[in-house]
Backbone:
């Protein structure tokens, strides 16, 4: 369950989740984030001189950024190298509670990304698949039967042109 997708009562929300409160970042926080975006494997010892802090102070700052949800430490993978040559963005039009529909879709193996949208689609769902048959199964056997899914359009991705993680902070 994603943060904010359910009310305290446990009933589904009828609106999109609220974004988290914006964390106030100073210049050192921003410098730490920029350095970690360039190389997330830097040690506190290496980060210290780059941002003007001692290693213990860096560790404390980084931990605060992680605990706040502003920063996540993850391994970025290449789907093609890992055996997922079929990628698709799926546009969905829904009826009823879009959050409940998104929650159900989030449980499907192969779904890596779901966003609420405006315009022609209510949701965009990105999937990674081992082959075209798996994509067909995800759409036909798993997504289409979900209550609230009205229309599905598949946009097969032919390749990744830009995938940025160094977009910085304001």
Residues:
């Amino acid at each position: 369950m994603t943060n904010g997708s359910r009310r305290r009562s446990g009933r589904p929300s009828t609106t999109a989740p609220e974004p988290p409160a914006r964390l106030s970042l100073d210049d050192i926080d921003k410098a730490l984030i920029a350095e970690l975006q360039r190389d997330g494997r830097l040690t506190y010892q290496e980060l210290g001189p780059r941002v003007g802090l001692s290693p213990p102070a860096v560790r404390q700052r980084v931990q605060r950024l992680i605990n706040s949800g502003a920063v996540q430490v993850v391994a970025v993978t290449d789907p093609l190298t890992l055996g997922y040559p079929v990628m698709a963005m799926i546009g969905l039009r829904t009826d009823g509670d879009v959050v409940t529909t998104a929650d159900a879709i989030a449980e499907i193996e192969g779904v890596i990304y779901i966003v609420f949208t405006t315009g022609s689609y209510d949701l965009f769902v990105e999937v990674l698949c081992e082959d075209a048959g798996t994509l067909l199964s995800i759409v036909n056997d798993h997504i289409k039967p979900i209550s609230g899914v009205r229309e599905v359009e598949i946009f097969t991705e032919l390749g990744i042109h830009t995938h940025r993680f160094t977009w910085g902070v304001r």
Notes: The radius of gyration is 20 Å. The chain has five helices and four strands.
